[in-house]
Design a protein that fits this description.
553 residues, alpha/beta, Aminopeptidase, Glucose Oxidase, domain 1, 17-stranded mixed sheet, two-stranded antiparallel ribbon, 21 strands, globular
């Protein structure tokens, strides 16, 4: 009995400690490395076939997500109480074997480019075939029109009916314009293609360099070389450019050389506010692209936990994660052809599921309602979140904030948490305060020139005014070797959008557990704040936010 009395003291203290935990702490502690990993193992298994849109893999994913939400008691977030928002997709597959991209000099073919290794191109007007001969080319630098920075790359040059050649990214040489090294939407490839359409261009070519893109040519080839998806047009496809494309740095050098120009001198010249479009004299382009189309659909899964404050329950906070990945490769690599997408983004999907589970435990304490959105077709251009933004289930003016989780910390605990969107809106100080309570820090994106704010689903919400953030893995690892960042960088580079993105020996789920718990705790202050979150004055999304708020007054 004496022995039992002594050994029972620690257990008694343990039970007393557990009893002293608040409901919030118990809910946060329900998010564990094991529960997160279990979701990841299932979603990234070969059975789910890479979770590509409009495939059996997506079907399994949708079924898994809805079943998990139902089991948690999280109700459907659609207006009719269901979980699924279906959206149309137009699938496009370009026949690379017949694709023609010929550069002519003084009427004679000087270069015949190979689809895949040297260029990527596709009809941008939903036509089955695009044929151009001797199309004129104009280099328009960054191709930006930004009145707020007194910047116009087009000046008074008529570029209608021409093929426009773009430098990727945006000016970064001056801290007073374009936010210095931080890439704004002006620097994204999607802006270039949208601008070409606005200017009445015949086509668009983006010059690829690894520094200006933020990734190597293989990412372009892998992303655009398979069947690609878009949201179907609204009957105005005839007004769009004939084609959009990317060109390797090597072949871009050749293109400019044939026009008597030096590519890198021209890239440097684009940084000057006085830059004017440059015609590629004596050089024209032949394009012949054939595409097959298929009408299909993908789906967003939306769950909801209702708030309890009579004055705030009709306002919302959105957690988002994309559930899709790249599917099955046409050719196996080392005997494997499935893009499992364990990190990108089974990890973020798992985190949102676990946050939903934890929120359900304390639903009576939530003032605002919470939406959990698992969006589709992110890898094809943020299409699921963009569809929701264009067809919202709740008015964006009633949404306080979006917290987007994409590719979580899987390599161990860190002292820091990177926040993409740092100091752009009032979510930052809330995250920072909670991190400090845990002896951690929230830091800005260390690579602002990569434009990560525009490369995941939070951007779709931001475009309709919703204050959004994108937490990212930190870099100050705890209890890891001194060279751990180099190891992480190497493994990440090898696995990004690759068949090798699977759970491997480098994974340490303690970091994802800590980060998800921190985000959960901080989100409660966002959900329960007296006022909705705001963009800071001068932010590029402030004006649309104010308009959305006015719309619901």
């Amino acid at each position: 009995m004496k022995f039992f009395r002594y050994i029972s003291i620690p257990f008694i203290l343990l039970f007393i400690g557990a009893g002293c935990q608040t409901a919030t702490e118990r809910a946060a502690n329900s998010i564990t490395a094991g529960s997160l990993l279990e979701h990841i193992e299932i979603l990234s298994s070969d059975e789910f076939e890479g979770r590509a849109p409009a495939t059996r893999g997506e079907e399994l994913t949708i079924r898994y997500l809805t079943e998990q939400l139902e089991q948690m008691g999280v109700e459907g977030g659609m207006p009719d109480g269901s979980y699924v928002q279906e959206f149309p997709l137009l699938g496009q597959f370009v026949d690379g074997e017949t694709a023609v991209f010929n550069i002519r000099q003084n009427g004679q073919v000087a270069e015949r480019l190979t689809y895949g290794p040297e260029f990527m191109g596709w009809p941008s007007n939903e036509e089955e075939r695009v044929q151009l001969r001797n199309a004129e080319l104009i280099y328009v630098g960054y191709g930006i029109q930004a009145p707020e920075f007194d910047w116009d790359d087009y000046k008074d040059v008529d570029v209608e009916g021409k093929v426009l050649v773009y430098k990727n990214s945006d000016p970064s040489h001056d801290l007073n314009i374009f936010d210095g090294d931080s890439r704004l939407y002006y620097g994204r490839w999607s802006y270039k293609f949208e601008k070409a359409e606005e200017m009445g261009a015949l086509g668009a070519i983006i010059i690829h360099t690894t520094p200006t893109a933020g990734y190597g040519w293989s990412i372009v080839e892998n992303s655009w070389g398979r069947e690609r998806f878009t949201l179907p047009g609204n009957g105005d496809a005839g007004d769009r450019p004939e084609f959009n494309s990317w060109l390797t740095e090597e072949k871009s050098e050749r293109l400019f050389e044939l026009a008597g120009l030096d590519l890198h001198e021209m890239l440097d010249a684009a940084a000057d506010r006085e830059f004017r479009p440059v015609r590629l004299e004596g050089v024209t382009l032949d394009v012949d692209l054939r595409a097959e189309y298929s009408d299909m659909s993908s789906r967003n899964v939306i769950g909801m936990i209702r708030g309890n404050d009579p004055d705030l329950m009709d306002e919302y906070v959105i957690f988002s994660a994309h559930h899709d990945h790249l599917g099955v490769a046409p050719e196996p690599v080392d005997g494997d052809s499935i893009f499992n997408g364990a990190w990108d983004n089974a990890s973020g999907t798992a985190a949102v599921l676990e946050v939903a589970k934890a929120m359900k435990r304390i639903e009576g304490d939530l003032r605002r309602s919470v939406l959990f959105m698992f969006v589709g077709a992110e890898e094809m251009g943020l299409l699921g979140s963009r569809y929701w933004a264009e067809n919202p289930t709740v008015h964006p003016g009633r949404v306080s904030a979006n917290i987007n989780l994409d590719s979580m910390q899987i390599y161990g605990e860190t002292r820091d948490l990177v926040l993409v969107g740092y100091s752009r809106n009032t979510l930052t100080p809330i995250l920072r305060e909670h991190a400090e309570r845990e002896a951690r820090t929230v830091v800005p994106d260390p690579q602002p020139e990569q434009g990560f704010f525009y490369r995941s689903d939070h951007f779709s919400y931001a475009r309709v005014g919703i204050p959004a953030i994108f937490p990212n893995p930190g870099r100050q690892y705890l209890d890891k070797p001194d060279d751990w960042n180099a190891v992480v960088d190497s493994v990440t580079a090898a696995n990004y959008h690759a068949i090798s993105d699977t759970i491997n020996e480098y994974w340490d789920m303690a970091g994802m557990e800590a980060d998800t718990r921190l985000i959960f705790r901080a989100s409660l202050d966002i959900i329960n704040a007296n006022e909705m979150m705001e963009w800071y004055p001068g932010d590029e999304f402030e004006s649309v936010r104010l308009q959305m708020l006015e719309d619901v007054q």
